[in-house]
TrEMBL record:
This is Uncharacterized protein. It comes from the Eukaryota. One of its GO terms (molecular function) is nucleotidyltransferase activity. Residues 2-80 form the Mab-21-like nucleotidyltransferase domain. InterPro entries: Mab-21-like_nuc_Trfase (IPR046903), Mab-21_HhH/H2TH-like (IPR046906), MAB21L/cGLR (IPR024810). It comes from Cryptotermes secundus. Its cofactor is Mn(2+); Mg(2+). Keywords: ATP-binding, GTP-binding, Magnesium, Manganese, Metal-binding, Nucleotide-binding, Nucleotidyltransferase, Transferase. Residues 85-174 form the Mab-21-like HhH/H2TH-like domain. Pfam families: Mab-21, Mab-21_C.
Amino acid sequence: MTFTVTMIPSNAKVDVDFVPVIEFTHPKWPAGSVRPLSDQLIKAKRTSWFIVPKPKSKTGDADHTLWRLAFHEQERELINDRGTLKPVCRLLKKLRDSCQLNIASYYLKTLFLWEIDANKAPDFWKMKQSHLFMHMLKILQQNLKRGEIKYYWDKHCNLIEGFQEKHKENLVCRLDNIIAHIERNVSESPIVIAEHILTKEEFEAFKKNCSTTFPSPSKPVAAVPNSATKEAVVHSPNLQGFRHKSDVPCSLCVDMSSKLDSIIIALTSVQSRVHTLEGRINVLCADIRSIRNQSQFKSAPRV
């Protein structure tokens, strides 16, 4: 069942799907190869999980006995308070939409869940957004090249198992081109990242606003004569992950990292309206749950 919600005063319309689910609570937990509920999640009281009926396949065939597992509460807890994780995840989704890459949002979110497991150091998620963005973009590229994105709750399940080979090859090829284009041009023009995250119209508006702040890729870059300064600059850890050190124009190295992060922060603000809508939808869902849990309704007294 789908409801269309109109937001006031913007009159933006959002479709909200209502799906029947069955809720379970720990100590009940799926058997088999599903990862156990961690002490962290039990302590945080994130113990409810759901089974959701699977929709019809694209071919129209449906097995009405099939259900899928859903661990929304646990996933929210895992990604909560992880520094730059959420804004970078939103930027990856924006790049996906702008470049029309046909890959589900949940698959991108799953990559972050696995990365949380792989990087326990608390400072990892405090890295600059520009660095984390490129890191996760390459993680996505590597997973698609392997032809698998493992389901976080059961590593034996491949979320992209149903992808056709041509579709996977197309995604890999496009990501290869995007990453290569960014790394080839970012030292001369940091706004190259925005070129892929934004649509053409958004990028033109963004470039117009930033034209006096960021250099154009076509402008020649002056060399820094002081070799000692050059040596110190190109070994800066802030430049790692974008381009080979010897290829970085020295006059831009000093402030390139800060400019990249300024761009990422500006791009994040593009999503502000979406975030507002998400918050309103969450409030709406909370109200619906509250109504559902009421055992009876009392009529309003007559005036």
